[in-house]
């Protein structure tokens, strides 16, 4: 009887070991499948992004220009903007109708299909399609404002369609070494109040690079967006695209639009050389 009991125990131990091995193998296979799925999704996202960029480049106007002001035809669209050298040249959307034209779009939100909760690398290099929702890229903006004094135009609409704008007679940012600090912000004018003044002098922050002035926390994480956060400030145009009002909703915000935290359905930032 004892011998049979020992055999039964050994058999049960082998069964338990086999079950454990099968469970471990099953878990590894699930983890591998999940990892493969995520890699596939990432490759597909990159493919779609590359395809959009290729399609965009097919619609770029011929020639290259120092700025949108130098484009003689005065037709809005995508143009090659010439940098200090060929490697620093880039494609941008030129607005030639609003406020006497010559404006280069550096940020545009209007439908909410593009995710702006991105890491430092994306905000540095830019993302989206320049003829749609996009962020042009901090490095491009730095190189452009380094070469010449520029002004800034910010266009806004709420979900009722009311249009307002804020304009600054000077605008410039620092280099990546300076964390793309909002170094220059001139006098304000326009129908939307001055919410950006509280961000003057602030370094740019993203969820993976916390440069804000908040004592305990990361504004980019809390607001789901990269921006020149203070603590955290009265504006973040890269926030979540949704029609929900309130100070803690992390939506596209410009408090002095109407002295409240209403959600905005449209934002566009444009710069133009002064000379």
TrEMBL record:
List, alphabetically, the PANTHER family matched: FIBRINOGEN ALPHA CHAIN
Principal location listed in the UniProt entry: secreted
The record ties this protein, via Gene3D superfamilies, to:
Gamma Fibrinogen, chain A, domain 1 (3.90.215.10)
**Domain Fibrinogen C-terminal stretches:** 59-275
Which domain of life, per UniProt?
Eukaryota
- Provide the Gene Ontology terms for cellular component: extracellular region
Name of protein: Putative ficolin
**Record keyword Signal present:** yes
Please state where this protein is localized.
Secreted
Q: Which SUPFAM superfamilies match?
A: Fibrinogen C-terminal domain-like
Tell me the keywords, alphabetical order.
Coiled coil, Disulfide bond, Glycoprotein, Secreted, Signal
